[in-house]
Every structure is written in C-alpha cells, then in structure tokens.
Specification:
The N and C termini lie far apart (57 Å). 67% of the residues lie in helices and 6% in strands. The chain has 293 residues and is mainly α. A two-stranded antiparallel sheet has the order 1-2. Helix 6 crosses helix 8. The protein is built from eleven helices and two strands; from the N terminus they run αααααααααααββ.
Length: 293
C-alpha cells in the first residue's frame, strides 16, 4: 500500500484514455433507442478498445524496453514504428496518431458543449439564457464557447510536458470524488427504492468493485511514492489531489453564496421560473421571490 501512489496516477491516465465512453453517454439523447444501443455498444466498444490497447502495449514492450521508451522523447507509437519499420513508417504512424487525437478532441468538444448547455438549462451557471441558446445555427454554440475558453487558456498559458500531465491528474481526482458519490447514490436507490423501474441493472459485484476503485483513487495519491517524487516533478506528488479538492470546494462555496448566503442577506428566496427562447429552448431562470409568502 505504501507504494500505491504511482499506480493511482497511472490509473488516472488509463481512465482518461477510456473517457470516450463517458462522452458517448453524455449525448445519448442524440441516439435512437438509447438504452438498447447502450446495452450493446457499451460492453462491445469497451471490450474492443481494451483488447486493442492491451495488444498495442504488448507490441510496444516487445520492440523496446521501458527505459528506451521513456528516453526516446517521442510518442510510444512513433518510437515503435521507427524501431520496427523505419523512418518512413514513423512519419506515417505520427499522422495516424495526430488524426486519432483530433477525433478525441472533436468527440470531447461535442459532448462538453452539450453538457454546458444542459447546465445552463438547469440554471446552475451564471447567464443561463446565453449559454442555453442554440443561436445562431441550431447548435450549442454558446456551450462550445464555454468549453473553448478554458481550453484556450490551458493551451496558451501552460507549458507542454509536466503541466499537461499535472492537468490530467487534477482532472481525474475530482472525477473520482463525483464517481464515488454516484455509486453511493446507486446503492441508496437500491436500498430505498428497490422496485423503481430501471432500464438496466448491473450485477452487485460491478458497483462494489467500482466503489473500491474510487476509494483507492482518492486515498493513494496522498501516499508517499518511492523516492518522494511523483510523475510531475518538481511539483510535489500531493499537490494535484489538493488542487482537485479545492476545485470541488470552490463549487460548494459558489453554491452556498448563490443559493444560501445572498437570499439570506437580501431577505428573499430564489424561485424557479421556466423561460422559452425564440429557438424553442426551455431553460430555468431563478428570480427573487417574497420569503414571507
């Protein structure tokens, strides 16, 4: 257990490589017969990707040692192609790697713009009318802009290399916290509403294993790794979980100020009101209501 810290940071990166599963689930309202499709495409897609990832890693380490790969200064796929097939193959595989990365960027961008739009429709972010809009071409352009702004900041303001790895770790830790709450909520539903209709129901061992995995991801990053250095030197190994927790607490503070403190000081309460935009989009707007009523 003492040396489990590096395994947790590695697992965050492994999970990031499967993030396409989450993005597909975010936009299931775009799919016909979403429950039926998810039951088939989910296990099939994850299974195929898992096997291909495993075979790719076997090929990489059959062609080069871990030390050679880490010291090459290029992507693993490029170094593999260089050693096995030569310089021309390295250039070709680099193009395919770039196309794969582009596909991932497009997928995440599409999914996150929809997520941002849905958050605006629920009224949980400032200026919901603007962010929920489908103006001007019937697509979540404002949600795309909201995704573009922090992405641009990360690309322009942060150097490549260690900073990118650190951002991946920071992104993974709050996700593990949220996943923990989700799986705990699943157990609560099973206990309090056992007869509630569910499109599908996993075997109990699946959420139990998932719960154990999230607990590991939350605890292991604080354990001192061998040599006291994480994968983002000179940044201390314990910084990224602290930053992740701070981001979540920032959301809690935002909610407490907006939903609790401001109405308490102002002597009113927030009342939900549905508004319809010219494009037919319905979003939630919070207006001041008389607390005495």
């Amino acid at each position: 257990m003492r040396n489990s810290g590096p395994y947790s940071t590695a697992l965050f990166k492994v999970l990031n490589s499967y993030v396409g599963w989450s993005n597909a689930a975010y936009v299931l309202n775009e799919v016909r017969r979403p429950v039926h499709t998810l039951k088939i495409a989910g296990p099939l897609g994850l299974g195929i990707c898992g096997v291909l990832y495993l075979l790719a890693n076997v090929a990489y380490f059959a062609a080069a040692t871990p030390k050679e790969i880490s010291e090459s200064g290029i992507t693993v796929a490029s170094y593999f192609a260089l050693k096995v097939f030569g310089r021309t193959a390295q250039r070709v595989i680099s193009v395919f790697v770039a196309l794969s990365a582009l596909g991932n960027v497009l997928t995440v961008t599409f999914a996150q713009s929809r997520v941002n739009q849905e958050l605006a429709k629920e009224g949980v972010i400032p200026f919901p009318r603007f962010w929920a809009s489908n103006w001007p071409v019937g697509s979540p352009s404002a949600g795309l802009l909201l995704h573009f702004i922090p992405s641009l900041i990360v690309i322009v303001a942060f150097p490549a290399g260690t900073a990118y790895i650190f951002i991946l770790d920071v992104e993974g830790y709050p996700g593990a916290v949220i996943n923990l709450f989700v799986v705990v909520g699943l157990f609560i539903l099973r206990w309090k509403a056992p007869h509630l209709h569910r499109p599908f129901k996993p075997w109990l061992v699946v959420p139990l294993f998932y719960l154990a995995g999230q607990c590991f991801l939350l605890v292991a990053p604080f354990l001192r790794p061998p040599g006291g250095k994480g994968d983002t030197p000179p940044i201390p190994y314990w910084v990224y979980p602290i930053v992740g927790i701070a981001i979540l607490l920032g959301g809690v503070v935002y909610w407490a100020v907006w939903r609790v403190l401001i109405p308490y000081v102002g002597g009113f309460e927030w009342v939900e009101k549905k508004e319809t935009l010219s494009d037919g989009t319905v979003y939630t707007k919070f207006v001041k209501g008389d607390k005495s009523l």
